[in-house]
Design brief:
The chain is of the alpha+beta class. Helix content is 33%, strand content 19%. It contains 10 helices and 13 strands. The protein has helices at residues 5-10, 73-89, 121-140, 190-201, 203-212, 264-278, 290-301, 322-329, 341-353, 362-378, and strands at residues 35-42, 51-54, 68-71, 93-100, 104-111, 183-186, 218-225, 228-234, 244-246, 282-285, 306-309, 333-338, 385-392. It has a 7-stranded mixed beta sheet with strand order 9-10-11-12-8-7-13, sandwiched between helices. The chain has a 4-stranded antiparallel beta sheet with strand order 4-5-1-6, sandwiched between helices. The longest helix is centred in the first third of the chain and has 20 residues, at 121-140.
Amino acid sequence: MPTSKEELLRRGLTPHDIQHNQHRRALWQDYAGSGLYMITLCVEGRSPLFGHLEGDIKAPRGQASFPHIVLSQLGNIILTEELPKLHRLYPQIELWQASIMPDHLHLLLHVAAPLPPNKKLGDILRLFKGGCTRAWWHQTSQTSTAVPAPSSATVPALSSAVSPSPSPSPPLLRLSLFEPGYHDRIIKRPGMLDTIKRYMADNPLRALMRKRLPHLLERRLHLRIGTRDYAAFGALFLLKRAEKEQVFYHRRDSATGLPTEQTDTYRHEHDRQLSEAREGVVLVSPAISPGERLIINAAIDEALPVIQLQKEPIMRYWKPERRRFEACARGTLLILAPWGLDEELMKTAHQCAGTSATAPSDYARFHHLNDLAAEICATTDVSLLNLSDIIIK
């Protein structure tokens, strides 16, 4: 990823042109054998063809007013006709859960036994996408209304409600309903499975929260803090707080050799920093070492103000996991991802060693992210923050 907006401009690009490739396959995975996956398929152009979002973000779970999706005619066809074909045609494939969104689908698929010879998961998904596309062609051939503009609205898990479908014009070129490829997440442990199930079930709630609380759930692909470029998700106004304090601890105490979190000094600092946060001080940290994580996790659980740095990039459709998402929605968390983190570390290593640099170690990232956390704490002049570049919600 480029390290600066200027580098992008020199290449004739703008920050919003950058797209993360989510279609890379795991080279070690046997996609013809058994496995458990969360599959994501996106509508071409992100047009909201499968339904629309309704509900109240404050409604208790289980009530009719809790956020949910009302499926369009096309969405209902996919739910009731196309999805059941997966198991009927390939008994090895079990659909454990589905979340139909206006502009994409999440499928929790269990491949219980090896697929037929010369068949892989991608082949079956291509056939499924083809069936959905033919259903779309059939539907659009019966109407001449214009295609709706792309939108980022979202849809729920297995809803049976039906609303009138957006009615695009007949696709003269027989275009595909979906974007090329698919994204898969391989699920290998029970805890991850539970997390994925909650993620899929809460999709309508998160989507409606993003729509109703845009000032708390902003996603920016480019902003500048001091001289550094970042992408961000969450409560940007936390950057304007004058009082910020870094949470930085090594894994082991240099004096005793004990894990840092087992020392009296750490226990004192743990209590002090959380007390400061209760008074409005923003805690800033990548939360990598156990000592950092204990404090940051406690602050997030207590709804205290936190700015957390991460090495993973924040792209156009990126969202944090449920716990951090809810903290962002409360206005108590901002997540920052520095641009070109590894590139910068490799360049520094090359300058120091004078040799070809390899991929940076986790230890190097740990220190660099903590250096950035210190810079953010020292940046108190709001005029240094360029928060008007590019806004993508």
